[in-house]
Amino acid sequence: MDSGVPAPPRTGRSRFAAFGQYGGFLPAIVVFGVFFAAPLALIVAYSFWKVVDYNVVHDWTLDNYRYFFSVGTYARTFWATIWVTFSATALTIVIAFPFAYWLVRYVSKRLQALLLVLVILPFWTSYLLRVYAWLNILGPEGAINRFLHWIGLTSQPVSFFLYDRPAVILVLAYLYFPFAALTLYASLQRFDWNQFKAAMDLGATPATAMRKILLPQIKPGITTAVIFVFIPILGEYLTPQLVGGARGVMIGNLIANFFGVGQYTRGAAAALLIAALIVALLVVFRRSLEVRDAYAP
Amino acid sequence: MSLTEGKLDRADLLKVGAAGALGLALARPAYSAALRSEATTLNWLTWSDHYANDQLKTVSKATGLQGRPTLFSDNADAYLKIKQTGSQFDIVSADGLWVPKYVKDGLTETFDLSSLPVSKQLYSLARQFPFWQSGSNYMAYPFSWSTVQIYYNPKYVKVKPTSWHAILDKKYAGKISLENIPTDMMAIAGRATGAKKPYSMTTAEISRAKAYLKGLKPNVLKLASQNNEVVRALADGSAWIGITNLGTDDRVKDAGGPVVKSAYPKEGTVGFIDSESIVKASKHKDVWAKFINTTEQAPWIAKNFLTNGRPLFNEKAYKILVNQGHGDRARRLLYNKPQLALQMTIKGPAGDQQAYTDAFNEVFGA
To answer: Which of A69, A90, B141, B352 has the most neighbouring CB atoms within 10 Å?
Structure first.
């Protein structure tokens, strides 16, 4: 609002003070600019360029986006990706929540620490090895088939477990379980369990107490766990490549195909479409993450 | 620095950083000198079947040249890496018609093949591939070749698939394994549908090739990221058919798998003739010849054949194999018939890479 009072002229001293006030942000701005804004700007620019004979030509065009919106395969693959991501995230949370709940409520502090180490233990090996291990569990010669054969349920190996979407969902749930478990654990640990007990003292069943007291209070933790799991899975391509077979393809695999043969501009456009979806989801999730300002009137 | 308090303020941090940087700067010449006195490292962008670790160790001991392989799967991938990384690589392996593209685009350079004594061990035909001639020079050192054909498990596939169309049969649903190389799969589909130049198909030919792949898709178990995954799928019985290189029958057997047989489709097929080239931006071009001359010696090549089971161009190695009692195997895998390499459609870059990749993705997307 214009107060009608002319602003005092800026002196060297006041400029210095202004720099002192905001100068502290400089490292963050540089880091953000170099590692996020500049690469993103480059990807955006690529998505509007084209490739001729493996060379990126800086002719501005909407062709890449037009292509994705004109070919049904990409919409279907996009939808399949969201479906797989949603299923894998749901499965991860469904497994991680009871685990974290049990850990916080029924396990001694000392054992909790040990179990948490066990949760992150798989991170000590490479991602690739962890996925390959599942090939040995789900494959025709794998543990599940051997077990089914041993108990006499099957006479021939069953190929159902591998090279399809259920395998992708299962392996992704395994890979991302630690992210969800640790986030939910941190959230549940901060919860005041006296409220839970009070609700039950006042006649609530455990299910009601959980639904009306616990879940609303750990909602930011659940949302964070969902974000940690859902968003990286959206861009997955290695797991579907290794265990998904021809039926388990996700959008990341098609993007990898573009980049693998130098079709950077197509790949950039597809990657940005995923990024747009992620941003939209973050906007939705943001409401669940809002924390009330303790000093708000 | 107030160590007793166990805290490090910003000024201390800057001092420590400056001291560290100074220390590194002072130590660098000594470190570089130490490195120079050790083996020269040659960065080699290649496939896993072009070398063996014991071979590299022995070569390093004998010559002071340490080959450091970095693997790739698709020629396009390697081409782009060389294009983008400049002098980071010294040697690059490439297939057939990719080699002239590297040279044309100024990424690799030609050389006098006859100046390498080891080249005398090659079949004479391999020293005269017309597509690798550049005046009196040659574009690459010939290594191995193979057709890409059908391998099938006779336990499940009762009729030998002698056509690319035979594997479209619904009874093979989810039982075919092949490598995820869009360009080559499109070229194979091109051969199946009668394209004249499978790597430079017209729009109509691309459409026909795409239709063929659409028909094949329900039968595809997985698009493997590496050739050994195709071998594995055939070995564990999850795949009945593999579209892959010569020698797969032996590799499946070595992996404890069943007997698989090869079938050569009547429409013809694609294949590779691969090689080693000098990267133009390499800082070690002067030692390239010495390295190749040592690594490509016949005893190593004979060993390579026994491990990887596809024909190579070193004729002297064939003689070693015959003397060692592996002649039958070598002949079965066409080692003694290098002229057959020129009958297949040789792998190369796609005329319109974008159209090829688009078509492939449109088929293999969800």
So the answer is: B141
Q: Is A58 contained in some domain?
A: no
Q: How many CB atoms lie within 10 A of CB A268?
A: 23
Domain identity same for A41 and A76: no
* CA–CA distance, B227 with B310 (Å, rounded to integer): 13
Q: What is the ipTM of this complex?
A: 0.80
CA distance B180 to B223: 5
Interface check A171 vs B, CB under 8 A: no
CB of A232 less than 8 A from some CB of B: no
Is residue A56 domain-resident? no
Residues A89 and A33 in one domain: no
Question: In the structure encoding, which two tokens stand for residue A265, read together?
Answer: 């501009």
* Contacts with B212 (C-beta within 8 Å, 6 or more apart), sequence order: B164, B168, B189, B192, B193
End-to-end CA distance of chain B: 61
Q: Does A246 touch chain B (CB under 8 A)?
A: yes
Scored b (16 or more CB within 10 A) or e, A245-254 reads bbbbbbbbbb
CB B115 within 8 A of CB B289: yes
Tens of pLDDT, residues B179-223:
988 999 999 999 999 999 999 999 999 999 999 999 999 999 989
| Residue A105 vs residues A101, A179, A182, A243, B255: alpha-carbon distances, Å | 6, 20, 15, 36, 49
CA-to-CA dists, residue B12 to A1, B23, B37, B248, B326, angstroms? 46, 16, 37, 63, 69
Task: Fill in the DSSP letter of residue B3.
Answer: G
Q: Same domain, yes or no, for A196 and A272?
A: yes
The one-letter amino acid at A252: G
- The total domain count for chain A is 2
CATH code of the domain in which A256 resides: 1.10.3720.10
Q: What is the pLDDT of residues B303-333, one digit of tens each?
A: 999 998 899 999 999 999 999 999 999 999 9
A54 occurs within a structural domain: no
What's the CA gap between B146 and B335, in Å, rounded?
Answer: 10
Task: Tell me if A254 and B365 make a contact (CB, 8 A cut-off).
Answer: yes
Considering the domain architecture, whether residues A173 and A109 belong to the same structural domain is answered as yes
**pTM score:** 0.82
Q: Give the domain range for residue A229.
A: 72-289
Mutate to test the interface with A, among B222, B240, B252, B362 (most CBs of A within 10 A): B222
| Paired tokens of B33 | 């000198």
Whether A261 sits inside 8 A of B357 (CB atoms) is yes
* Residue pair B205/B190 in contact by the 8 Å Cβ criterion: yes
